[in-house]
Design brief:
By secondary structure, this protein is mainly alpha-helical. The chain contains six helices and no strands. The two termini are 27 Å apart. Keywords: Cell membrane, Membrane, Transmembrane, Transmembrane helix.
């Protein structure tokens, strides 16, 4: 086990649990139809919702296998940033407690993915060149 395994495992579980249930409980269809289509992605809302959720599953598998981690992380970070901009930022910071559906969880996931991508830190990575 390398130094990022515990974080990769945790993020993989989160991504799977955020995507797979929606594949079986009509969640992807609802997200695509009742949210993405209504905010300007019609008629591609359902397709986009499926692509987002499938990217989470692929990223989870890649994180568990420790393969293409940077690509999987970058794609996931971009999706999380868009989630913040479109869904969570208008709701504020807190997921629960001081608010509802806020951006704090996405913020944390972004920085965990950055820590996975750069386990030695960014400064050390840049100074080796």
């Amino acid at each position: 086990m390398d130094r990022t395994f515990i974080l990769r495992f945790a993020v993989a579980i989160i991504l799977i649990m955020h995507s797979v249930p929606g594949m079986f409980n009509n969640g992807i269809h609802e997200f695509g139809t009742f949210y993405l289509d209504t905010v300007g992605f019609a008629p591609y809302g359902i397709l986009l919702a499926w692509l987002i959720k499938l990217s989470h599953v692929v990223a989870a598998v890649l994180l568990l296998l420790n393969k293409y981690v940077k690509i999987a992380s970058i794609v996931t970070i971009l999706i999380l940033i868009m989630g913040i901009i479109m869904v969570h930022y208008p709701e504020g910071w807190f997921v629960v407690g001081g608010g509802r559906n806020g951006m704090e969880f996405n913020f944390l996931l972004i920085f965990v993915l950055l820590a996975i991508m750069f386990p030695e830190g960014i400064k050390n990575k840049l100074s080796k060149k």
